[in-house]
Amino acid sequence: MFRRKNSQSQQENGIAEQEVKVSELRAALGPLSGRSLKYCTDACLRRYLIARNWNVDKAKKMLEETLKWRATFKPEEICWDEVAHEGETGKVSRADFHDRSGRTVLILRPGKQNTTCAEDNIRHLVYLIENSILNLADGQEQMSWLIDFTGWGLSVNVPIKTARDCINILQNHYPERLAVALLYNPPRIFEAFWKIVKYFLDPLTFQKVKFVYPKKEESVELMKSFFDVDNLPNEFGGKGSLNYDHEEFSRLMVQDDVKTAKFWGLYEKQSHIASGQSGAQVAPEPAPLALPAS
After folding, report:
1. Which of 33, 170, 211, 237 gives a 20 to 30 Å CA spacing to 226?
2. 189 — pLDDT class (breaks 50, 70, 90)
3. Quick check: 27 pLDDT over 50?
């Protein structure tokens, strides 16, 4: 009984200390406005603190770099019609099922690489990361990645620089958003690529990357620990099916573009979608003063 009380007390003290750190980080950031203010929720600040081992100064520097990146890259302003051509083969898509913890699942199929423009590849991935975050359930902060290597080879390989840029964006600007990345049945030739790419990963991200081989029992059990096999597509050893329909997926993404516009106060973007340029039939709302960019 006493042990339980001590354990509970320690846990409460730990939570209290974390909240103090969140308050310290918010004070260190100073006044925020517009999208920066909306982005910097307590949960957001907590993710950056975790990524920097609760060091307020380091978390502040990291978060400020993200705010600069978001002000320039403007990920919340990317519309599906701008990146839809990248998704024609279904190389990256949001799954219609969740993992056992109820997290959004992002499916990557590098063997279906269909373009060579690095900038568009990155914008497409960033769009779907933002979309996955938009579709997280209440209380969820992270997503799971399933990476299917069927058909992967050097002929469809993403250049090292593009891979590094994507990793840097994920690590530096979406800290603690990744729960796990399951690399399913990568071919031997991938080992050479991985030897280079792994050096771009920070220790926290590296620990979340798991290699899965369908003929290894421990790999099968690992997949079962994260997913219900009835929902999991057979490409990943489950009983479900993965049939990417680009037209249907595009329809869902256009609907989500409207939700994104409402969330960020991007009424001009919402009107653009509603005009039919993206194929959505949505009536625009009256346009109040738009939130200023950070």
Report:
1. 170
2. confident
3. yes
Q: Within 10 A of 48 (CB to CB), how many other CB atoms are there?
A: 23
Q: Please state, in angstroms and rounded to a whole number, the distance separating the CA atoms of residues 286 and 279.
A: 20
pLDDT, tens digit, 9 for 90 and up, residues 75-130? 999 999 999 999 999 999 999 999 999 999 999 999 999 999 999 999 999 999 99
pTM for the predicted model, two decimal places: 0.87
Q: Token digits for 109?
A: 């199929």
**Quick check: 93 and 128 in contact, CB under 8 A?**
yes
User: pLDDT digit string (tens) for 146-175?
Assistant: 999 988 877 767 788 999 999 999 999 999
Condensed to tens digits (0 to 9), the pLDDT of residues 207-257 reads 999 999 999 999 999 999 999 999 999 999 999 998 999 999 999 999 999
Dihedral sign, Cα of residue 120, residue 106, residue 40, residue 165: negative
* Tokens representing residue 238 in the block: 């489950």
Taking each helix axis from N to C terminus, what angle separates 118-134 and 246-264, rounded to the nearest 10 degrees? Answer: 70
Name the phi and psi angles at 156, rounded to 5: -115, 15
